[in-house]
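User: My advisor, Dr. K., asked me to get a structural model of this assembly before our group meeting. I'm new to this, so sorry if the format is off. These are the inputs:
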Amino acid sequence: MQINKFVIGGILILGAVVFLIWTSTAANPEYFLTIDELNAKGSSILDRNLRVSGAVIGDSIQYDAQNLALSFEVAHVPGDNAELETEGGLAEALHQAVMDPERSRMKVVYLGPRPDLLRNEAQAIMTGHVGNDGIFYADELLLKCPTRYEEAVPEQARS
Amino acid sequence: MIANFGFGVLAITFLVTLYSVFAAIYGERKKIPAMVESARRAMLLTWPLLTLTASILIYLLVNDHYEVQFVYEVTSRSMPTYLKVTAWWGGQAGSLLFWSWLMSAFASLVTLRKWDRDREFLPWVIVVACVTMAFFIGMSVFFENPFAQLYQMPTGVEAHTFQPAASILFIPQDGNGLNPLLRHPGMVIHPPMLYLGFVSFVIPYAFAMAALITGRIDDRWIRITRRWTLWAWMFLSFGLVLGGRWAYDVLGWGGYWGWDPVEIAAFMPWLTGTAFLHSVMIQEKRGLLKHWNMLLIILTYDLVIFGTFLTRSGVLSSVHAFAQSAIGPLFMGFVSTTLVTSVALIIYRWDSLKSETEMTSLLSREALFLLNNLLFMSILVVCFWGVIFPLISELFTGQTVTVGPPFYERATGPLFAALMFLMGIAPLSAWGHSTVKTIGRAIWKPIVGALIVTAIMFATYTRNVIALVGFFLIALVILVTIYEYWRGANARQKSQGENIFAAFWSLTGRNRRRYGGYIIHLSMMLMAIGILGIELFQVETQGALEVNQQMSVGGYDVVYQDIAQFQGPDGREVTRAVLGVYKGGEYLGELNPRIDYYYDAQQTMTIPGQRSTLRDDLYILLVDWEPASATGATFKIFVNPLVNWLWLGSLLFLVGVVIAAWPEKDAERVAVRANASVQQQTSAAD
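Assistant: The format is fine. Below is the predicted structure of the whole assembly, which you can bring to the meeting.
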């Protein structure tokens, strides 16, 4: 009898937690895609909440300060860590992605302040959706600037 | 040269920790006290050695020795000296050394205590502390050497510990500079606080392991480490709050917490640590939940190691990827090894960890504490699920699916609310047995009070249901806590004839742990007010303004007055706007949001202008300014209601922990008595 009420209480809590996790996961999934995967899926992902990672192309950054509208292009980088390693680490992979004109690219629009870390060869991790026009509308924008050791060494050292 | 010396000292320290581990085990096995003593002294030696290592690193940092890779990466000539010193923990290699240094300080402190009655724990505490240290120092020696130097090779510049053949030392003119985001007072103290918290949790874990290995699994280990645990918890909690404050001041998104994996990694040991703090009380009072307490401290320890691994390299570099160097798998290996070993020890001691009594009443203090533990663990499970969900989804569907802040908010919200409700009723319950009736008799007044507060909030402030539930719970906890305090003080006032303030004072002094705990509960509620405010009522607006043009948000009128650009003191260009703030036509002062551009790091940093009151914060960001048309600038303005309560609460929190952890005057006597009764029990058992 004593045991029972604790067991029942425990099961109730467990049930509640599973329910909370399950419904919360189902309510807010973000599909993590690379740009290649995104292009391959076509229009099937139009309404979905997506999380996409890409290498920022510095020359494409435009900022309309009047409307706080930021737009830039990102190039495909592999989503898999092992794949990144074979390309020589994240910094090198980002560098390759930006230099390679053959890589698939995607235009991104974001409304808000221009992030301090947005610059050439930064990794952008964007949450948002793809519009009918094929542009990625980001609600959230995270940036990561790995220091590439070679690049950080002053010019005179590299020749 | 100096760098090589530093590396040498570090390598010697590594050997010393290894020696300490083996000497302790050998001395314990062969019953040679001199050997254990030697292990203890070796352990005491690590702190001076690491202090020397650290001094060398700081010397290199302060004196611009850019031939050292780490110095090159985190400092530059334009940085002020204090930032060059704190750059010590600005990068991965340095922060690992910092971790080891703190660890050795704590290990030394704990070895210096009087061990007379707990001599059998000593060798095993040394083993656990030194294994942990050896792991971290070994990491520095073999993989993340802070003293690695740059060498010009035929193929380019590379960093090496020892000079490779056919190379010359390469000395850059200037360094990369610390990431500007980290050049903030909050960032100067946030990592040390967090690390202090992380590291000091190793000590209770070490004692727990010692208790399991020696088989002396009464609550002695808990009593010895009670105050350690509280300090550890305080540092960890305050470290988390400081991190939030730093994000609020520096990251410029008007928030303080983003459910980033790194934040969660630091939050998870806090959850298990908090659960542990509560559940050890059940073991002390009732002899229950011994397995559970062991499990909690083990989880906390491994989450601390895991958290160090995830947070080690600072903030932004960890947005989603795991470490890209060899140390990732090593960390995971260390975590899983210690976890498996520790759990195996629990299983080995399973029978002797059996509870001394049974839990019978669902509303007893111990049952409510157990429920509190389950809720903390549920939040932990939610967090853990969120962190590993991408891996799970990829494994089963081939599609990586991540979850963001909405997931965490939705899943943890009800759990936090339940915790608050518990905080309201648990202080009114009794050990052993309580009923709805006994609790109901005590709680009806606070409930009526809380309902009145909620009604007032409904009439004057908000109609938001979540907010009203939140305010009700906050009011309930605050009233119950004050009520409990008042009851105690009142009884004292009557029996001792003290005035009410003296009664409050001596009441707290008599039972520091209990009343310190109540103050901590109150502080949590103040923080909850701040969190509710900013989460539910934040308003924002943005727009471009001409000089003398104004913008209104949340009852404030903001007038753009001026902007100026000038050179800052430490190699940055400052663009600083002047805005006049008005409310209802009354002038409140000016705010100066600015953009700092750091030449060395080629990075901008957006610093908000803030005006803080208890009612709300006005938080203005200078978004953009075109030098060509010097007349206009773009701003983003947030009004963050009640957020100041969050920071106030964290200060009260410190007060509460200090009260709870302050040594009791007669602590030693109590401990002796407890020990004596234990010995009686064991002799009776023989």
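One thing worth pointing out at the meeting: Residues 313-324, 667-686 of chain B have pLDDT under 50 and may be disordered.

User: Perfect, thanks a lot.
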